[in-house]
Write a structure and sequence with these properties.
The structure is a single chain. The protein starts with 10 loop residues before the first strand and ends with a helix. It has one domain: Arc Repressor Mutant, subunit A (Orthogonal Bundle), CATH 1.10.10. Helices cover 51% and strands 7% of the residues. The chain binds FE2/S2 (inorganic) cluster.
Length: 67
């Protein structure tokens, strides 16, 4: 927590308006990138957010591993 929890409202996918918080929510439901894309509409537009979102999922995954 700390550093990244301040940016929960940050939009990660501007095409769909998907925020960091949305990505985290779907991640916590156990969805992978493809499923998150289908649920949220992220990655369904320009695709420019793909790197950011996949990096963020990686960070979330690493946090879980450390629990
Ligand atoms: S910013 Fe996510 S598809 Fe365009």
């Amino acid at each position: 927590m700390g550093a990244d929890s301040e940016h929960q409202d940050e939009i990660m996918c501007s095409c769909s308006g998907t925020t960091r918080q949305d990505i985290q929510f779907w991640f916590e439901q156990g969805l992978d990138l493809g499923a998150i894309s289908r649920k949220s509409g992220a990655l369904s537009g320009c695709g420019g957010c793909e790197w950011d979102i996949s990096q963020y999922l990686k960070v979330l995954g690493e946090k879980n591993d450390r629990k």
